[in-house]
Amino acid sequence: MMFDLNLLITVLLLIAVGGVLISLGVFFIPIGGAPAAMATATGVATGCEMITIGAGVTGLFLSATLYNQPLLLVVLAAGVSSAIMMGVTMIAANLILIYGVGAPPAFARKDYDPVTKEPVKPYVTPGTVGHGVLTATYLGGLFGAFLAGIGGALTFSVMYRFTSGAGFWELFTATSQAAPDIAAITLSVITALGAYLINANITAYSIRGVIESWIDPKFEAVPRTLAACFSASLLFGILILLASIAL
Amino acid sequence: MVFEGFALILAVLSLIVALGILIGWFEDLESDSGSQSNPNSQVQLAPQVGVLHRIYNKAISGEPISWGLIGVTSGTVFTVLWYCFKINPVISAVVSCGFAMMVHVSLATSAHFGRTSGVKVFGQPLYLDVVAFNLPLIAAHGFIGATAVVTLSYIFYTSFFRLEGLLGYPIPIPILGLLLGIMAGAIGSSTGDVHYGAERQFQHYPFGEGVPSKNFGHITTKAEAGWRTSADITYFCSRYGGPMAGLCYGSILFLDNIRLLVGNFAGSLMGLLFGVIIIVGLFAINRFLEVTSRRKFGPYQ
User: Fold this and answer.
1) Is A52 helix (H, G, I), strand (E, B) or coil?
2) Distance, in angstroms, between B197 CA and closest chain A CA?
3) B151-162: string of b/e by CB count within 10 Å (b at 16+)?
4) Distance to chain B for A111, nearest Cα, Å
């Protein structure tokens, strides 16, 4: 069975671009890790991989439902889904922090919230670096989840179209499939989960587990990390394409 | 007929949201009853700073991975029973979740033994009555959560084909169980854990502040009467942390599916636009919460 070389290279490149988008998204999500669960650090109280996958899964659901729609529409819809998941989660975390712990959202890194220009430092508990999700980091979280959702949905949709036998142009346009190919969906979901884990993990090393969205100095590590994620996703794409050809 | 079809879709949507609330709620309480995920760092640290406790400690992985395992185990057994042996889905769900519960309990037992023996050098005893008392609690919460995950996967999968793609997802049930479990873990870990980690675990410190790093490890070991056990923690968190995690999960499923419905009825672009409107609304709610809490509590004193 012969394969179109242009198709293979495009699929590989799109998987790598998806990985880069996931990694860039993680930089924008305010990740607090375990200290955030003790209200010692700001952000969402869980690890990079965990919250990125959690947000990305919502986008994967939607991209599976829109299996035969144009690619651009699918990835945008999935990104919005992931942003909705992240937005609701950050609100619930703030609700628990405010009414369950009794501390208002604040951080100690800057005197003022960079977006609203309100003073935030007086609200910080001494001995902590802040707690909760503020307006500046909330916006970053929404945008980061949107980017990560786009990346995961891109990996999923491209992989789905490739494994269900689409031609070069059918990668981008609406396809004529009347019913979803369940086996291809299974393989593509597992590919997208792998892409989330790999890229979020590389980014987690780069930001050492915690980041306060775009106001954090660790944000300078973006170019190096994106390059690393691009090459790792390319390698991952080659392996997964070899596996899918064998099927 | 149009009205009946619409009513059926709304009924399925409300069932999806109700099951979502159950998953989030019981996932968080299950993790609290075993001190899994983030608060576990303090339970594991406590003996090292001289605080001995009677709290169950079973974390060997993050909540999303653990719940992904539960979801995929019960989903696989369910699919085998329902799809291959043509057994009634209700019976299949109960049997598959019973099987997943056995896997879950064996992992919880070995994890507790392993983690407690890891801090034996600091004098932390391994209480067998703590194991015997807390395992049924973990198993019960895990069972309810797993049943909700399997039922929700079944509803998503079948409704996609019955309702012609208006609701539900064309993903096989084991993979749906994995994804729903991972999502439940991510939500429970990032929302419900704050109530346990920042409030219940450090209850002998004043209310209304974050936990300074110097207090790390000095967790509350005394309960209202006697030593604190994981059952006390679950009781406390079931009043606010658990329901909030459930509300979060239910809201996500509700908002995402109502957006899918709008997209299916009014065109995909309208669905996209509706999603953007939801995001703007969420941002406004968060801003309102932030402003009111700062006005209400005032600066730290």
Assistant:
1) helix
2) 5
3) bbbbbbbebbee
4) 13
Distance from CA of A69 to the nearest CA of B (A): 9
Q: CB A89 to CB B213 under 8 A?
A: no
Q: In sequence order, which residues have a C-beta less than 8 Å from that of residue A69 and are 6 or more positions away?
A: A174, B268
Three-state secondary-structure class, residue B96: helix
d(CA B101, CA B95) in angstroms, rounded, equals 10
Q: What is the ipTM of this complex?
A: 0.91
Specify whether the backbone of A209 is left (phi greater than 0), alpha (psi in -120 to 50) or beta: left
Taking CA–CA distances from A187, the nearest residue in chain B reads B175
Q: How many CB atoms lie within 10 A of CB B21?
A: 21
Q: How far is CA B172 from the centre of its chain?
A: 22
Locate the chain A residue with the closest alpha carbon to B203: A101
- Point out which residues pair with A211 in neighbouring strands: A31
d(CA B285, CA B289): 6
Is the distance from CB of B263 to CB of B274 less than 8 angstroms? yes
Distance from CA of B140 to the nearest CA of A (A): 24
Q: In sequence order, which residues have a C-beta less than 8 Å from that of residue A40 and are 6 or more positions away?
A: A127, A128, A129, A131, B210, B211, B212, B213, B216
Q: What values do phi and psi take at A130, rounded to 5?
A: 125, 175
Q: Is A205 strand, coil or helix?
A: helix
10 Å CB burial of residue B233 (0-12, 13-18, 19+) is: buried
Portion 185-214 of A in contact with B at CB < 8 A: 185-186, 189-190, 193
Q: What percent of chain A is helix, strand and coil (3-state, nearest 5)?
A: 70, 5, 25
Q: Specify the pTM.
A: 0.92
In a 13 Å sphere around the CA of B126, the CA atoms on its Cβ side amount to 15
Predicted confidence pLDDT, tens digits, chain B (301 residues)? 678 888 888 899 999 999 999 999 999 999 988 888 888 888 888 899 988 888 898 887 888 889 999 999 999 999 999 999 999 999 999 999 999 999 999 999 999 999 889 888 998 888 888 888 889 999 999 999 999 999 999 999 998 888 877 888 889 999 999 999 999 999 988 888 888 888 888 888 888 888 888 888 888 888 888 888 888 889 988 989 899 999 999 999 999 888 888 888 888 888 889 899 999 999 999 999 988 988 888 888 7
Q: Which of A31, A49, A89, A193 to probe by mutation at the B interface, max B CB count within 10 Å?
A: A89
Decide: A59 and A185 in contact? Cβ < 8 Å: no
A111 touches chain B (CB under 8 A): no
Helix axes B63-79, B2-33, angle to 10 degrees: 130
Kindly determine whether residue B160 and residue A65, on different chains, have CB atoms separated by under 8 Å.
Answer: yes
Determine contact, residues A77/A170, Cβ cutoff 8 Å: no
How far, in Å, CA of B128 to CA of B297, rounded? Answer: 44
In which element (H, E) is residue B12 found? helix B2-33
